[in-house]
Amino acid sequence: MRITLKALVCSAALALTAGLLPGTAQAAVSAAPPKTLANNALYKSGKMPAKKCTETHWERGDMAAAREYLEVVMGCLNTSWKAHFKKAGMRFRAPDFEVVNNIGDPIGACGRFPGPGVLALYCPDNENFYMLVDGDALDDPTSMIHIGVMAHEYGHHIQQITGIIPVYDKMKFKSDDAHYAMHRRIELQADCLAGAFIGSVWSTLGRTKAEFKDLTEHELGGTTDGIKGGGDSPDLEITSPTHGKPTNQRYWLTRGFSGKGPQVCNTFTASAKRTA
Prior knowledge:
Distance between the termini: 19 Å
Mean pLDDT: 83
Membrane topology: Single-pass membrane protein
Number of helices: 8
InterPro entries: Uncharacterised_pept_Zn_put
GO cellular component, one term: membrane
Protein name: Metalloprotease
Low-confidence stretches: 1-30, 221-237
Helix content: 40-55%
Subcellular location: Membrane
Oligomer: single chain
Order of helices and strands: HEHHEEEHHHHH
Number of strands: 4
Structural class: mainly alpha
Strand content: 5-15%
């Protein structure tokens, strides 16, 4: 089946979930990824400038305070990535941001908000970022999962404005397996970009390394082809054909965190083993 980024950028845990759109497998694709993917200027842009990001807090059930938290994190993402693009001499545009209150609510060009279990979705067609605000989605006010999800979805926006997603969506594949293999590189790169942002603001978040370790080792949980689980089953390592092994998801998230910039996030030249 043909899978488009329009449906595959929604997230349930650390931004690692897929909704599938039906379609038709395309003709053969060359083994080497296009230049826009493998040699993008993004990889030459260096580390992200250190910026301040102070998370706000809320009590379980306080949806107004939770929404304020999400808007603060979104502001941090916009500030950090805008400064990075300016430093690198690259053109930047911020995504729009909308809060969704219910599964099934309309989300513009990408149809309706999927679920259950999905926390956020980036829609490349209108460059809108959608975040679900309900009791289940924001059950744990202390978890890093919320900033992790938002940073991952913002990573898809970075891929959109640097031409990576538009080129990917035009590629043709000889089989679903070939398509899945390339899509995993897209998703794992978004994990790395999420880590790069978190690493660049880490000193101001007031978080501990134990919390980041918990994010990478427990919040990822298990993966299915449709929904990425949360922290209930940290030992369940089910590989998603579109998002990869949890061990690789953790690797790229941590790689971005340590590198503090997209210069370490070129998944398109990485080995097949590291993007499985």
